[in-house]
Amino acid sequence: MDIKTALPWVTIVAAGLFLRAAISLHSYSGQNQPPKYGDYEAQRHWQEVTVNLPVSDWYRNTTDNDPLYWGLDYPPLSAYHSYLVGLWARRWHNESYVALYESRGISTNQHKQFMRNTVLLLDVLLYLPAILYATYTVRKRLANDRSEVAEWASLALAVLFPGQILIDNGHFQYNNASLGLCALAVVALLERRTLAGAVLFCLALNYKQMELYHALPFFFYLLRDCFTGSDKSSTVLERLTAGVSRLAVLGVTVLATFLVLWLPWLSSLEAAGQLVHRIFPVARGVFEDKVSNVWCMVNVLVKLRNFPNTTMALVCLLCTLLAVLPSGLHLLLQKASTIRSFLYSLAVTALGFFLFSFHVHEKSILLVALPVTLLLPLEPLAACWFLQIATFSMFPLLHKDGLTVPFVGLSLISLALLRTARGAQSGNKARDSSYDLLHLRGLLPESVANNVTGSVLVTLFYASLLGQVLLLVAFLCLPAPAHLPFLHSLAISAYSCGHFVLFYMYFNYRQFCGAEGTVANKQSTKISHKKKAK
């Protein structure tokens, strides 16, 4: 790679790190808010627990491990990460950061800098390389357009996605670990390294159990791959035997990965059961705060908290399966399953889980944002639109953390980046419109950009953006009625949920009807043929 080629990559990474470091200077979740503080304290407390207690007690309720004070409820790989960070704090920084009991609620500037640096380290070592590599590989393998402008625009939009930056480097979490591992797993499947992809996804799932949002597409794609990779000239029995053999190897690989990670808790059923109980807490309720999913909207009319949690868990499970199984079965049974269908299925399934599953957080929309980010080279307008509304849906949480200014700043930067992507489709000569300030037509194929459909899509995007601005102004400037204190948060959730339902239907349509022969691909092919003919 020469200097000219490397410069844009370095610039994008440098910009991503600079903005993440700048956001790290702001406040975090639960800062100076006793008695439990927030997610920042949860992550710190897990370091305290893992470095001071034996492994067998990490998930067990004991005097020194109170589940009511941020009990460790993430899978083993996340616990190991907490342990390593805790050791780093104890040996090379300040033992008071992880002192049992005494470190609770610590909020010194030195500790804040230490914690922020642990997130930045994961960004540098895992998330940024993974998201860049994944987006670049998807573009190289699947996108017909090869223009440099579109390439760097999609990479920049992926790296500078405001939602992930604001949650990990602002609010404070380590979503960058599981999302980075999942992105690498997608790339491994794209490059036909199925066992490596399976191991990487198992690692992601063992870092955060919410990676179950992505599990079904991986399962169906890998299952199909086991039985479709045989030589077509062989007999049915030979293909079946080869498929079963590949499935057995895949199963052993997955089981071995889980066994290695879960080994300290496999000495007894009680220990393993306690771990499972911690990471799947049914008692917490169907959703938290004002999350932008279906159940939060239903709760306005029917108070779901009046129903037993076990009943709601079963209802959520049934509705989630109904929402995601069609996509998974299509991926499994279609005549020619491709990685393009897999990407759409990831988006559909994650969105189905977000909208209908049990105990959903606002931050869980990041799990949907990952596959949509990987669709940037293929669906620039739809992907940018979704990522914009995904960030907006988390605004009430971000405002509570004191991150309103960073939210506005990063949102404006991401919108400004859209102007640079106006050449996103090769040969695009979309006409300018007086109101198209962001040059959104440049994100559409020429056949769509210059007709009524393009005008409608561009208008709807700006209408969506205007609605966000109005809700934002109302949230910040208009006091809510005394009897409806959460009115503005609920309005933002309802507005975002409406968008998510529409995107759920759209991505389903793209998987079932348009993934193989998209308008953009057809138009790009026609243009290419015309150029060759000339």
UniProtKB/TrEMBL annotation:
GO terms for cellular component: endoplasmic reticulum membrane. It comes from Anopheles coluzzii. This is Alpha-1,3-glucosyltransferase. Its main location: endoplasmic reticulum. Belongs to the ALG6/ALG8 glucosyltransferase family. The chain crosses the membrane at residues 6-23, 119-137, 149-167, 244-265, 312-333, 342-360, 366-390, 402-421, 456-478, 490-507. Its EC number is 2.4.1.-. It is a multi-pass membrane protein. The lineage of its organism: Eukaryota, Metazoa, Ecdysozoa, Arthropoda, Hexapoda. GO terms for molecular function: dolichyl pyrophosphate Man9GlcNAc2 alpha-1,3-glucosyltransferase activity. Pathway: Protein modification; protein glycosylation. PANTHER family: DOLICHYL GLYCOSYLTRANSFERASE, DOLICHYL PYROPHOSPHATE MAN9GLCNAC2 ALPHA-1,3-GLUCOSYLTRANSFERASE.
